[in-house]
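so my prof wants the structure for this chain in the tokens format not the other one, which i didnt know existed until like an hour ago. anyway here's the sequence
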Amino acid sequence: MARVTIYNIAEEVGVSTATVSRVLNGSTLIAPETAEAIRAAAGRLGYRKRTIRRQRGRAILHIRLVLPNRPERAQKLFYDYADLLAGIKHGVQDNRVNVVTDVEGESLDLFGHKKGGDVDGVIFAFTRPAEAVYDQLAGRGVPVLTLHRLVEGRDYITCDNVEGMRRLVGELAVHRRDCDEALRPCYLRLEAIRDIADDRQRGIVAGCRTAGIRFTKRDVLGVEAIANVDKRLIDRIDRRRYNAVLCFNDVVAAAFCQAARAAGIDPARRWEVTGFDNSPLRDLMRPRPATISLPVLTLGEQAGRWIRRRIVERSDEPFAVRIPGEYLEGDHDDDQ
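here's what i got, hopefully its the right format
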């Protein structure tokens, strides 16, 4: 008679083999009803666990990394995903990890092929799935991490967007005081990534309040896409006589400066333009804007730490990390 394996149990219950393995190894991360169904099926089928001594670091963990599918080409310039992968590999230390990448979208199916059922964990990077996806993964007992999105009640690692923008406003206020001119900022936000845009707006409001700077909803200008940063927007900002434009990120800052030059305005002489993320595009800008770094490598290293704690060590402690970004001063034109 053929030996009963976890694959037989997984097929019987309709869950992944990873879920079966966790339950049979005493994990508390699986829903009680699912765990009970697995144990019952194991007894009914006559499963006998083999005693295997496995050295630490010898098992290969299968991680699905889901990346965003940005419809606008310019949005693909935001982050260096190679740094993210390098960080994950470094963060897992001596554990062996097979990272399979996917792109979000309607066709995304985390369990639609043979290896999908064996996934040990899923990481959503720079995107947040629907609640139904979280529920599906929880039902199968698969740990899930969200990178660069704050998802209360779930595992997440994110840059501290609020504190980053607050720091940026504070630095600009000091620089303007040194120039004997009060800061009059506006916020150019990207509506396509609303949750991050909201966080960064809260940081600006907090920074202005601390510095005693007037900032109202009228000073918030939203665009649906980077392509909408055009002459009409430049004219609108120019008419309101702002002296600083705090952009959603470095890519929006680059688009703003390009549109200003196309309108016949030297942005470096008219405004202090800031970005966020310290993306590779910033190094091509002259002058480079002040920004807050989003340490993608550190995000990856923290994700590797999550893999160790949640999957290898099977810890059920909450995992919520906010990484402070570093303020990077912009280039200053002495002729301004």
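also thought this was worth mentioning. The domain at 60-158+296-324 is CATH 3.40.50.2300 (Rossmann fold).
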